[in-house]
Every structure is written in C-alpha cells, then in structure tokens.
Amino acid sequence: MEISIEFELPARIRKKGAWFISSCPLLDVFSQGQTREEAERNLVDALASFLTSCYERGMLDAVLRESGVVPASGLKSRKPAARNGDMAVRVPLPFEVRAKTRRAVAS
C-alpha cells in the first residue's frame, strides 16, 4: 500500500543574472533553474530529497523542531500568507507500508 504525506512550505524565487534562484529559507534549502518554473520544480525535488533523507536518518522531527515547526492547533487548512513575492510550494513525500517490525519492549 502506498501513502503520501504532503508539506506546504514557504519558498522564494529570485532572478539573478541568467538564472532563477529558488529557496526555502525555513529549511535552508536552495536550488536553481533557467526558468522560474524549472527553479520551482528543482526546489520541490531538492526539498523532497532533503526531507526523505531526514526521515531515513531519524532526524525529521529534530530538523522540523529546530526550524520552529510545531503542530498547529486544530485541523484547519490555512493558506500561508505570501509576502514580498514569497510563495508556497507543495512537496509530496511518497511512502509505502510494509510489514510491521516488532519493537523492543522496555522492561
């Protein structure tokens, strides 16, 4: 069975010379592209790789907490406010459910 978790993260895209530089300042992740669309796609790919790597190393919780990310109260779906040309990008993280492994029971 496959499941997906999706993050909606703040992002910026700025033109610098011939390139568009994309970033997620919250997680300090950067990318680039020759077009605005390519820079955004590349940022989503970089964020997905970064978050997946954090999960695989057991560091996702620590990285999110260090970035100031905490659970929101309630389940309201809120659109982040864009300011100064900032935007939000959606970063899907695909997972699959495998057989559960037994956890050691504390005695």
Account of the 3D structure:
With 107 residues, the chain is an alpha+beta fold. It is built from two helices and four strands, in the order βββααβ. The chain has helices at residues 36-56, 60-66; strands spanning 2-16, 19-24, 29-33, 87-96. It has a four-stranded antiparallel sheet, covered by helices on one side. A hairpin with a 2-residue loop joins strand 1 and strand 2 (19-24). It is elongated and about 55 Å long. The two termini are 33 Å apart.
Task: Write the SSE topology.
Blueprint: E1 2-16, E2 19-24, E3 29-33, H1 36-56, H2 60-66, E4 87-96
Antiparallel strand pairs: 1-2, 1-4, 2-3
Percentage of residues in strands: 25-35%
Helices and strands: which structural class? alpha+beta
Tell me the quaternary state. single chain
What is the averaged pLDDT score? 88
Overall 3D form: elongated
Q: What's the number of helices?
A: 2
Q: Largest sheet, described in full?
A: 4 strands, antiparallel
The topology string of helices and strands comes to: EEEHHE
Helical amount among residues, as a percent range? 25-40%
Low confidence ranges? none
Rounded Rg:
17 Å
Order of neighbouring strands in the sheet with most strands: 3-2-1-4
* Number of β-strand runs: 4
Distance between the termini: 33 Å
Question: What would a concise description of this structure say?
Answer:
With 107 residues, this protein is of the alpha+beta class.
Describe this protein with a few key phrases.
single chain, 107 residues, alpha+beta, four-stranded antiparallel beta sheet
